[in-house]
Each structure stands twice: as C-alpha cells, then as structure tokens.
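Q: How would the structure tokens look for this protein?
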Amino acid sequence: MKYRTSMLSAAIAVCLGVSAQARAQDATTTDTAPAEASELDRVVVTGIRASLQQALDTKRNSDAIVDVITAEDVGKFPSTNVAEAITMIPGVTIDRLFGQGERVSILGTDPALNRTLLNGQSVASADWFILDHPSRTFNYSLLAPQIVGKVTVYKSPEAHIDEGSIGGTVIVDTRRPLDLDDNVVFGGQLGYLYNDRDEDGEPQGSLMFGWKNQAETFGLIVSAQRLDETIRRDGIEAYGSVSARDYRDGQGGGGSVNNLPPDWSQPPIPGGGQPTLPASCVGACAETLEANLDARGPNSLSASFFEQQRERNSYSLALQFQPVDELDIEFNALKIDASYDNINQSMFAFMGNAWNSLMRLTDVTVEDGIITRGTFRNALSVYDMQNRKSTVETESYDLKAKWDSERWFVSAHVGTTEATGGTDQQVFGEFLNWADYSYDISRAPSQPGTLTYHGRNPFTDPSAFRMDGGWGADPTQPPPSWNPGWGGNIVFKPTRDEETYGQVDLGIRLDSPVYMLRFGAKRREHETEQKMGGVSLASVAGYGDATADMFNPQPVPDNYLGGFSGYGDLGDRFYIDGWALADYILSGDWLAPWQTMPEPSTFNDPSFAANTWRIVEDINAAYVQADFSWNGLRGNVGLRYVRTDTESHSWQCVRTDAPPPCPADGYAPSVVGKQYSNVLPNVNLAYDLADDVVLRFSGAKVIARPNYSDMSSYLWLGDQTLTGGGGNPELDPYESTNFDVSAEWYFAEDAILAGSLFYKDVDNYILTTTRAEEHFNQALNRVTTYQVARPDNAGTAKIQGFALAWQQQLAAGFGLIANYTYADAESSSGDPMPYNSKNQLNISPYFENERFSARLSASWRSEYFTNVDRGDNLWVRPYTSMDLSLGYRFTDSVSLNFDAMNLLDEAYHSYADTERLTRGVYRSGRRYLTTLRVQF
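A: Here is the predicted structure in token form.
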C-alpha cells in the first residue's frame, strides 16, 4: 500500500516540477474541461454526424480521460434510454434484467462503484423492485432522454469533481437557456410504443419550450414528458439448488433414503414413536445418490409470467440570469412521478422443498456432478401470485451563482434532491398442489428445463391449486384445536433517498504555466432509509383455503414462452387476475369466524424489523487543483480531502425474558456509528504529440463507499430453504489506486483511432460471503441454522485491461463507430468480481444525408458474475443487443423517427455456478417506437 502511494505521489511531484519551469500560457486558455464543454454546447447540433463531431471535440480538448454522447438535436438524444445510449462508449456496459438498461458499469466495475451526477451534482434515485435494496446506483429507467443535452463519462477523476467512483463518473447535463440558438424554441414529440411480446402499445409524448430575451440576459426552458409502457417478461426459473445428500437424508422433513418421514396413517408404536413411510428412492436410485452425494440440481423449476405497467411523468425547469457579463445565476429543477405496478405469477414444481418433496424422489440421473433428471411421487407444486404497487418519485432542485472576472472566479452552489420508491404494497397469495412429475435439465443451457406431469396436470387445472388451510382436529372450531396454514402475506417496503448539499469554489488565474489555481469546499448531508412491514395470512381450511379458479383464470397468451424450446408442461399453464386476488385478501373474506383482519406492522415478524433501517451519512470535502499548460503538455494536478461520518440505525430485539420470535414490544432502536477520512491525490496529463495525436496519462487515489443496504443491519431469511442474506454496518470503503494511459489519433476530420490501458488496484474490496447463523424459523416455530450471505471487506482486487476505439465518417454519408474493451478482474480471495465482463464489443454503422438517417447499434458482452444468492454464485451468460434507428426529416421543423429495440429478443440467462443450473432465463420482447417530432 505504501509503495503504491509513493509511486502516485512521485508522479504528481514530477508534474508539478515540470510545470513550475514552464513558460506562461496564452491568456485565451480555458478554465476547465467543463467550461470548454459549455462553449462547445453553442455549436449547432443537428443530426448524427454533428452530434459525433461535438462529442469528439469535447473529448479532444479535455484534460481528463473522458468520452461523450451528445443530443442529435434539441430534445433528441440518440436512444430511447440514456443508459443504452452510453453503451457505445468503450468500457461502458449495462445490465438488462427486465429487458432495458437500468444500471451502468464502467471499466469492469460494479454499478455501485460508479456515480451518476446531474449537472455536476448528486441526484437521488430509487428502485421499484421489492427485492432491490437502496444502493448507490442510479436507476436510468427514470431519466427521460428528451431532457438530456450531453452525457460525459469521466474515466479519470479531477479534484473538483465529487469523489465516490472507482470505475468512472457519469455527468448528465441538461440544456442551458442562454445557449439556445434562437430566442424562442418550441418542440414537441408524439409517439407510439409497441411491444411484440405483450402485443400491445401505448402513446408517448413530450413538450419543450425555450425562451431568452433579446439582450440574452435571461432565459428559461420548461419541458414535460409522458411515457406509458406495458412490459411482459416470460421466463423459466429455479429458486436455488439442492444436493444428492439432501435427497438422501432430507433437511428436517425426511429424506428419500434415510431419516424417513413418519407415516401418520398408522397408529403410534407402542411405547412411543411413529411408524415411518418406506423409502421412495431404492435400488439404482439410492445407489446413484450414494455415489454422488455432492452432486447438485435445481430445487425447483418454474414458469414465470411477469407483467408491469410503467407510467412516467417528467417535468423540468431551467432558469438562467446574466445581468452582467461576470455574473451567471442558474436554477434547475427536475421532478419525476412514476409508477411501476406489477404482477408476478410463478407456477413451479418444488422438488427441493424440505417438508413435501425431498423424501419423494423415485428416480434420479447424475451427469458430471449435476442432477440432470429426477422423478417424484406426490411431491409439491406451488403457484405464487405477487401483486405489487410501486410508486417512484424524484425531485431535484439546484441553484448556482458564479462571478467570473478576468483574474478570478467564485461560485456558490446549493441544492437538495429526494427520491422515494420501493414497494407501497405487496399482496402475496400462495396455492399448493401435490402431484407426480419429473424434470429434465440435461439439455441446458440451450433448453433450460423440461417439466412433465404424470397423470393430472395442475398447471392446466385452476381448481387443483389451493391455499394451505392448515391442520388439526376440527377446522370449524377456533384454536387451539386448529393450526392455520400460510396463505401468503401483505407487505410494504418503501424506501427514501435524500441529500442536501452546499459548495463553494474559488479560482485564481495566473500568467504562468500554472494558469489556474482553484480551491473549494463542500458538505453533503445524506439519508437513505428502508422500511418493511406486513402480516402473514393465517388461513383456515373451509374458510381461507381458496382455490385458484376463484380468480378469473385464463390460459396464458399463445406466444407465452416464445423463443424457448423443450419446456414440456411449463408452457401450458393458466394465470389469474392478480388484482382480483388482491381484493379478496384485502377484503378479509378469507377469515374464519374467530379471526380478525390482521394489520401490517414492522414488528409482526423479525424479518420485517431486520429490513427496517436508516443510514445517515455526512460528508465534508475540500480540494485544491492546479491547471497547467506548456509546450503541448497540459493537464491538472489536485488533492481532495474527504471525511465521512455514518450512522446505521436499525431495530434490535432487547427482550431476553421471552422465547423467540421477538414480541412486538420487544424492539428498541440501535445505532452503529463509523467515521473515516481519505486523502485523494490525482494527476491528469495530456500531451499533443502532433497536431492530430494526443497522449494521456492519469493517476489517482479514489474511493467508493459501500452500498447503503450493505452498511445496514437488514436480514432476510428463507424458512424453507434455510438460507438468508444481510448487511454489515462495520464495512470500510473501497480504496483504489488507478492508472490510465491512452493514445488518440485524429487521423481525419471527425475521426479517431484510440487505444487505452487501465489498471485499478483495489483495497477493502467488498464481497459477499456465506456463514452459518442461528435464527428463529417461522415455519418450524423454532431456532434453526441458516446459511446467511453478508458483505465483508474480503481483501484486495485488481482490475486491468485495455480498450480500442475507431470512429470515422466514411464516404457518401456513411460512418462507423466501433470499440472493444478487455477487462480482467481478480480478487485476492479468488471470488469473481461483480458485473465484470472480460470482453465487450460495440459496432454502430450509420448513414445520414439531408433528409434520411439510419443507425444500427450492436453491443455484445461476455458472461459476468452478479451476486451470491442462497449459497450459489450467480452468473449471466453472454448478452447481445441490437437496436435500429431510422429518421426522415420532412422540413427543418418536422421529422419522423422509427426506433426498433432489442431486435434479437435476446434472452437474459442467469445461472448458478454452472450453465446447466439455470436460475432464470427471461425474454421481454422487441420494442418499436414511432415518433413524430416538431420543432420551431
């Protein structure tokens, strides 16, 4: 560690020494890379080629290592999704779990190790999926591309830019009113978005008005956007894995060879005990298990049917006032109101269930350590219906004033941003069935799995699935003579993310090679919290054990599982009206006469209390930066000091006089505090070797703070699978020493051939590890041992690689963008690095003339690890995306565009450790958007 730091310090000292002997720079030198970019914003940007030209100019003139995507015209960003647009940048990848880009990775790093800033400042973000926890990632599905003027990806830091990124920092810039080309600008878009899997479409629209006075001292831009989209995602899933040993011995409920379950149809054995059922797995079946005890297979095989209605309203306001040349005052406001209501219906064979299936195996096949086939007699099948309401809202208000004179500048910056999201309400209904079936995954991954029912097929018979009504002596009598079953739950899990910031910057211009010295200080006060509460549905036979045919069942659409093959009975299933089931559960019609409607609460279940937490984070930072230029060598050197104070708030059970689970009045608030400081030096060098060649070097010490959820005390438990996950309030931040070298050859007008090397030496790398922990099991009503995954500072990691890029406007209106990135990541523990694809390739040919434009964008990334789940390492298979954009300009003011997205209907394929153990394969359909644009 000391050696790496000394190398970086030495490099900075050399740069300072060189610049100190340099001659005076011409007074026309610009202040900063962002300032240069703002001047470039004045270029008239219309069309693909002009957009690429402006991006290249910004990259070439920057002191740092950056890449840029700019709008093709006012209100027209070159994609319907900002995250998908910036994948054309070398080293930038996205994850498409729900078919669209929502999170960005840079140079082989986890999305949480990169920051996204709006106009240079924090923007709060929230997610909608109930399994997501608040993190430091930004949800790009919330950002309307119409408001974006430019996106700059900083792959090397500068001292005046907020810390917190190891891979890179994405700065999204909206348009400034006084940069408009005309005094009055009006634009509007009307579109129709169609999804071929859902076979339905929705209208889209946006409006923008810009104005500045004749003196160009005051201006404003207001805009509004509306997006409606229906998403349907079909998939084949598994929810974990089990071993041959589990089938042989069981996991508490009995095995198929040993530890046989009791036979309750027989009278008790005199003197105590209960006769057992005969072994279900005998002969060759038992011999196969015995010879392959560590072999693993899926614990379930599911047909997933997911539907979501996305609605997003975005509003933005920009005000700019320049009463005199030296003073610039800007105010930016952004408000996003979005809903992500969704229904997820999973119908699956649950052969790994500890109490209903592990002891019912009758035949098994093991190939190369994988249980590829299994046959079961009277084993469990499950139909889960989850109805979720989710609202995501983001607000951001930012005020900046800058006085910029010939010799110095000073600026003040204040703002606040807040986002709320999560799940407002989940209504979960679970239906059960027992049947004979077999599964086959021997042809995976091309065919993820086949399910075959022998005899009655419950997937086509809604009356065969019934909620668990419990057991006991007489269901018509109140407790204690009856033990109710578990029919589902009602859960809420809202989140909130909020930050208030204040910043002061001062710059002094000098007549020397060091032409600018600047200083600044900033304070950020951040809070992130998650609340969870709910109640389980204690259903009683004869009252609450509803069957699925009560809720308007109907066959799945004809194109269900289109693009899949070899799935057997998984594709022939029904689905129900999830809103009707929600109404039934919320109405209380399922209650027995002696039951009352339960009230959802944080303290109804230990897991709810464990998932309720708040992180308070105060960050104080100060920096000094020197910008220099001499004889073709330019750049900056800086130092940023930052102190971070955190508090992790949670609820802990303090009742020691009561048996588990903890009673509702047994919880007390708990706070764990932590403080750390970091000194972050950096240097950026750019040398103009020739008029058309630029060489660059960057060295920096950087940090990335842990995810908020990782810093919390949250905990989730799977009572059936005996697995879980949680947080760790004692985590330290990632620390990394980064080095980057690049060469850029601008061999023709608006063309570049570039290559770069990057190296990141990361300390305190956070990886998820699994350990055994004792917790109360709701299903068993006793303490059991779980395998719980928690984050730890597991050691060090190295990320290194290179990127190659070629961009050129060819003859006759044709052009090409192509780049390749190689990123090799390795941790000292041997664990894989999240979201790192070793190989990434982007190719985008285009054509443009005065009237017509066309662009094809193809991206490919190799396999990558995502996370640890239920003790398994989850990976995603290689992913290829292809999009097409066509445009026709009728006049300077009217144009028509057609965008086709996900043309390949690519499968998002997640697997556990080996490709033959599928965790989830999903297809979400091709999307087609036709848009009429008008601008005056």
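The first strand starts at residue 66 and ends at 70.

The chain has nine helices and 45 strands.

Upvote if useful.
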